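Hi there, hope your week has been kind to you so far. No rush at all, and the record is pasted right below.
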Amino acid sequence: KQSKALEVVADVTKPEDLRRLVDTTIKHFGKLDVLVNNAGAGIAANISDKNFYDNYLKVMQINLNSVVYLTHICVEHLEKTKGNVINISSIAAMRAMSGFSPYSVAKCAMDMFTKCMAAELGPKRIRVNVIK
């Protein structure tokens, strides 16, 4: 049995796009076995930069908030299949780099979110792991 690949264009900063992504996937495949959170963006930003906070918010939205929201809306489907969540992190979560604090903070927070979800979802037989 062959399954055709599914392509869905989505902006991970828009919750409605993420919902459509999940709904389209379920409609196409009938289930969800694995969620891979791989979207990421690193914007160079020093704390003294005029636009630092705007860049910080963008990086957090892409690298952390999308992971949290997608995981949240996929749990009901992953419970049915005893599925997996794989979050893609970075060495930046473990090593401080000048000019990239928003990215490092987002990836570090995602790593802890992964640990929390592993503890919370493990009893439901959903594996949650991070790759750095």
In short: The mean pLDDT is 96. Residues 52-81 form the longest helix (30 residues). The beta strands are 34-37, 84-88, 127-131. The domain at 33-131 is CATH 3.40.50.720 (Rossmann fold).
